[in-house]
Design a protein that fits this description.
The longest helix is centred in the first third of the chain and has 23 residues. The protein starts with 12 loop residues before the first helix and ends with a helix. A two-stranded antiparallel ribbon has the order 1-2. A hairpin with a 4-residue loop joins β1 and β2. 72% of the residues lie in helices and 4% in strands. It has one domain. It is mainly α.
């Protein structure tokens, strides 16, 4: 049973906004059943993968799988509520966690460099020089050409649609009202049932599957034994 809201909830604009976002989440859940079912299947695969990492030797990389799953859940919440550009910002983080995990699998000596980022100005500069997203995306292509190329495409898509301020991110939520006397501009914070919402739901699924596929390159035997590989093959149909 959900707890009742605390005193004064809904009297300020932020809590009103959160309530409206929650109403949108209910609507998306009720009206986009096929998309929601697919995202639920992806979430189930994440949870199976995380549970299967108990006693894994490479626990360090497993931490990035946990962060990626958290990002995936955040993207679902933002997308379902209609916060479209914000969803893409979180999806970029989701992708980056898989790319970092894959990079550390192939470059274990770099883990200490990354962990010592805040030791000094020199250490921070060393991290910035080594950990470039282009390098990690190239590694993903080297490890798994098909999934690496998909990761590159999805990464650029997240940048275009909200992970960076740019024209596409702005225009997808911009409404223009013209009259004889003036032109009025309005930015939609919470998108309703729209093409943008449908596209973002699909992108969340695509990123979720791609990220798990990249982690499969790290834990191939475990993913096979747990049935995650077969599950991903099924989920990918239609994406």
């Amino acid at each position: 049973m959900p707890l009742p809201p605390p005193p004064n909830w809904g009297r300020d604009e932020i809590s009103k906004f959160i309530d409206n976002a929650r109403i949108n989440e209910f609507a998306t859940f009720a009206n986009m059943k096929e998309d929601i079912a697919r995202l639920s299947d992806i979430d189930f695969s994440y949870r199976k993968a995380i549970e299967g990492l108990n006693h894994a030797e490479d626990w360090f990389v497993g931490l990035f799988l946990l962060r990626a799953h958290s990002n995936f859940l955040a993207a679902c919440r933002l997308c379902w509520s209609g916060q479209i550009p914000e969803s893409y910002a979180v999806l970029r983080s989701c992708l980056e966690n898989s790319l970092y995990g894959l990079y550390f699998t192939r470059n274990q000596s770099s883990r200490e460099t990354w962990l010592r980022r805040h030791d000094s100005t020199t250490a921070k500069k060393k991290v910035k020089n080594e950990f470039k997203i282009t390098t990690m995306l190239d590694l993903a292509v080297e490890v798994d050409k098909a999934e690496g190329e998909i990761a590159k495409k999805l990464y650029e898509q997240t940048i275009d649609y909200g992970a960076h301020p740019n024209e596409l991110a702005l225009m997808q939520t911009l409404q223009i009202y013209e009259s004889d006397k003036q032109v009025e501009f309005k930015i939609t914070y919470l998108e309703g049932n729209s093409i943008q919402l449908k596209l973002t739901l699909k992108t969340v699924a695509q990123v979720g599957v791609n990220v798990l596929s990249l982690f499969r390159a790290v834990y191939p035997e475990r993913f096979n034994i747990l049935g995650i590989t077969d599950g991903l093959r099924h989920i990918k149909k239609g994406l």
